[in-house]
Design brief:
There is one protein chain. By secondary structure, the chain is an alpha/beta fold. It is built from ten helices and 15 strands. The strands form three sheets. Strands 2-3-7-4-6-5-9-10-11 form a nine-stranded mixed beta sheet, with helices on both faces. Helix 8 links the parallel strand 10 and strand 11.
């Protein structure tokens, strides 16, 4: 962010939840405790709101985020649950378990949340503050840990303020988080896998599934490595000033194209539209894709990081 903002810290209660819900309705991220760690929550249906999470964290690349919902019904509206996923939800939700399931077609979730992937990471939290915020907003909330990228995950409001003070408008303080460790992440299915260890014992998960948990490829991986990063099926050329023959040009700022990330040069809008533009280009009749130059600052660095991955 170009200019530091005033970060409020409010003790949990109805007034604080109302303030937090109003900020989320405006597309702002707010820090809120869960039973695992403090999360940086924003409306998962708004691409620009989600882009502000990355902006505040200084996240180096657009990784999939966990979506927090109020109950299993809300989760099933967004993802497809098989019998194993439902059994795990029944056993451990609300609680510190994240399930990675196929994203439902038409689910009203910003593509930036899933990083363009066909799966979605879902959790029903147990903490009273996050549950109150979910109820007050009536929205699914994307929420990675509320810390600057590369910093230790926060288990107290003071940790959030030390890391994100001046970058976000509000921290909801409800004391130390009970688990102090990020959620366990499981990929259910015919060959269930433990993608990240957490507060729930893998043996308890295996007992519910009646099957052993495999590990993720290359060992345990974080949400950003749940699946291969989205890349179009066509050659991708970066820093293009114009389109070559049979190229679909994604423009930015004054450089117009077949589609544009942001005609006004707004990096938050560009981040929000990144995966939508790539999907549109991939579905076009052109043989290859070109992308206009993006300034390598702020969110632009994250956009360029993802484009470089996609180009490979």
């Amino acid at each position: 962010m170009a200019h530091p903002i005033q970060t409020q810290c409010l003790a949990f209660g109805p007034a604080a939840i109302q303030t937090a819900a109003a900020l989320i309705a405006e597309g702002q991220p707010v820090a809120v405790p869960t039973e695992t760690v403090y999360g940086l929550a924003a409306d998962a249906t708004q691409g620009e709101a989600v882009a502000r999470i990355y902006e505040a964290k200084g996240r180096p690349s657009f990784n999939p985020l966990i979506v927090h919902v109020a109950d299993l019904g809300a989760a099933e509206a967004l993802g497809a649950f098989d019998a194993g996923a439902r059994a795990l939800a029944a056993a451990f939700w609300p609680g510190p378990l994240t399930l990675v399931v196929p994203r439902r077609a038409g689910a009203p979730i910003a593509n930036l949340v899933t990083a363009g992937l066909p799966t979605i990471a879902l959790r029903v939290p147990a903490h009273r503050a996050m549950r109150a915020l979910l109820k007050a907003t009536a929205r699914p909330l994307a929420a990675p840990s509320a810390n600057a990228s590369g910093r230790i995950s926060p288990t107290r409001a003071a940790h959030v303020l030390a890391s994100l003070g001046g970058r976000i408008p509000l921290v909801l303080d409800d004391g130390p988080t009970p688990a102090g460790l990020e959620s366990t992440i499981v990929l259910p299915g015919n060959a269930p896998r433990l993608l990240r260890p957490g507060p729930i014992d893998p043996a308890a998960i295996e007992a519910v599934l009646g099957a052993p948990l495999g590990s993720a490829p290359g060992g345990i991986v974080a949400p950003g490595q749940l699946a291969s990063h989205y890349a179009p099926g066509k050659p991708l050329r970066l820093n293009a000033r114009s389109a070559k023959a049979d190229e679909w040009l994604i423009g930015f700022a004054a450089l117009a194209g077949d589609d544009t990330l942001s005609a006004s040069g707004d990096l938050t809008e560009a981040a929000a539209r990144l995966f939508d533009c790539l999907h549109t280009a991939d579905a076009s009749g052109r043989a290859s894709i070109a992308v206009a130059p993006i300034p390598n600052k702020g969110l632009g660095a994250a956009i360029n990081d993802r484009l470089a991955r996609a180009a490979h």
